[in-house]
C-alpha cells in the first residue's frame, strides 16, 4: 500500500493492524472461547454458569421451566451439549435411559461428576462440541442450554448438520440461547459471545438437510419463545432481554 506522507502512512498501518487483529480473532474463535471459559471456571458455581449474581434465585425457576418444555425422556438416549457443572444433567438422568453430558472445560466436567456421578446412566465427556462425533441415529433428544452462542456461524452450521445425523427419526433438539443482549449481570471485559437474532437460528436450522435411507429429512420448528423467568426479571431490571427456546423435530416427509 503506497502512502503519500508519514501521517497517512501511520493511518494506513493502524488500519492494516486493526484489520489483522480482526482477522486473527475470526480465525481463532476456539482460542477466544477457551480463554473466556477459563476465566469463568474458577468457582465452579451457578453464578459462573449463568454469569449472573442472582443465579441461585433465577435457577430455582428457570431450571423447572426449561425442563417442562422437554419431551418425555422415558427410555430415551439424551445428549446434553455444554453441560457445564451439571445444573440440568442430574435432572435429565432421572427419567432418561442414558445421558451423555459434554463440556470442553475439564473442571466443569469434574464438578458435574462430583455432583451427579452416582447416576449410573450418565456418561461424562470432556470434549469440544466442534470436534465431537457420534454414531448416526444414536440419540433421541439433544438438549443444550447456552452453548450455540459460543460458536461462530461456521462452527454452528457444521454442528447443526451433525446433530441432524445423530438424531433418530422423531428425535428432538431443544436449545436455549441469549439473543440480542447478554443475559447475566456479571461484568465481562472481553466478551466473545455471539448474541444472534432468533431468526438466524431458525434459518440455519431450516437450511440443513440430510438423506437417510434415501429420504430427505430435516428440522421442523415446533415452537420458540422467551424464557418466562427472565422476562419477569427483566421487567424489574428495566431493560429488555430476549431469550429464545426452540424445539426442532426431526422428520422424514
Ligand atoms: C453459559 S454456560 C451453560 C452451562 C450449562 N448448560 C448451564 O446452563 O448451566 C456454557 C457452557 O458451554 C461450555 N462450552 C462453550 N463452548 C463449548 C464447546 N465448544 N464445547 C463444549 N462446551 C462448550 C462452557 O464450558 C460452559 O460450561
Automatic annotation (TrEMBL):
The EC category is transferase
Q: What pathway does the UniProt record associate with this protein? A: Phospholipid metabolism; phosphatidylcholine biosynthesis; Lipid metabolism
Q: Which InterPro entries match?
A: Methyltransf_25, SAM-dependent_MTases_sf
Q: What is its EC number?
A: 2.1.1.103
> Which key words tag this protein in UniProt?
Membrane, Methyltransferase, Transferase, Transmembrane, Transmembrane helix
What is an annotated GO biological process for this record, any one?
A: methylation
Q: What is the reaction catalyzed?
A: N,N-dimethylethanolamine phosphate + S-adenosyl-L-methionine = phosphocholine + S-adenosyl-L-homocysteine + H(+); phosphoethanolamine + S-adenosyl-L-methionine = N-methylethanolamine phosphate + S-adenosyl-L-homocysteine + H(+); N-methylethanolamine phosphate + S-adenosyl-L-methionine = N,N-dimethylethanolamine phosphate + S-adenosyl-L-homocysteine + H(+)
Please indicate which superkingdom the organism of origin belongs to: Eukaryota
Q: Which residues cross the membrane?
A: 230-252
Q: Name one GO molecular function term.
A: phosphoethanolamine N-methyltransferase activity
Domain named Methyltransferase is located at: 78-171
One short Pfam name that applies is: Methyltransf_25
Task: Output the PANTHER family linked to this UniProt entry.
Answer: PHOSPHOETHANOLAMINE METHYLTRANSFERASE, PHOSPHOETHANOLAMINE METHYLTRANSFERASE ISOFORM X1
Q: What is this protein called?
A: phosphoethanolamine N-methyltransferase
Organism of origin: Ridgeia piscesae (Tubeworm)
Amino acid at each position: 500500500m503506497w502512502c503519500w506522507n508519514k501521517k497517512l502512512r501511520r493511518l494506513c498501518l493502524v488500519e492494516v493492524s486493526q484489520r489483522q487483529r480482526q482477522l486473527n480473532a475470526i480465525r481463532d474463535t476456539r482460542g477466544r472461547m477457551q480463554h473466556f471459559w477459563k476465566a469463568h471456571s474458577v468457582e465452579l458455581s451457578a453464578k459462573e454458569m449463568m454469569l449472573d449474581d442472582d443465579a441461585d434465585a433465577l435457577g430455582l425457576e428457570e431450571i423447572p421451566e426449561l425442563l417442562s418444555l422437554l419431551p418425555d425422556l422415558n427410555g430415551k438416549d439424551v445428549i446434553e451439549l455444554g453441560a457445564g457443572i451439571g445444573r440440568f444433567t442430574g435432572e435429565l438422568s432421572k427419567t432418561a435411559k442414558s445421558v451423555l453430558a459434554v463440556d470442553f472445560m475439564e473442571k466443569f466436567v469434574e464438578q458435574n461428576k462430583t455432583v451427579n456421578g452416582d447416576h449410573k446412566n450418565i456418561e461424562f465427556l470432556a470434549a469440544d462440541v466442534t470436534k465431537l462425533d457420534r454414531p448416526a441415529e444414536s440419540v433421541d433428544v439433544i438438549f443444550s442450554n447456552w452453548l450455540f452462542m459460543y460458536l461462530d456461524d461456521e462452527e454452528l452450521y457444521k454442528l447443526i448438520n451433525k446433530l441432524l445425523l445423530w438424531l433418530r427419526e422423531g428425535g428432538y433438539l431443544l436449545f436455549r440461547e441469549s439473543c440480542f443482549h447478554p443475559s447475566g449481570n456479571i461484568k465481562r471485559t472481553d466478551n466473545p459471545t455471539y448474541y444472534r437474532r432468533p431468526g438466524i437460528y431458525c434459518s440455519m436450522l431450516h437450511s440443513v438437510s440430510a438423506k437417510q435411507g434415501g429420504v430427505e429429512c430435516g428440522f421442523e420448528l415446533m415452537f420458540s419463545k422467551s424464557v418466562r423467568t427472565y422476562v419477569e426479571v427483566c421487567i424489574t431490571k428495566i431493560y429488555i432481554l430476549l431469550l429464545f427456546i426452540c424445539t426442532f423435530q426431526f422428520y422424514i416427509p
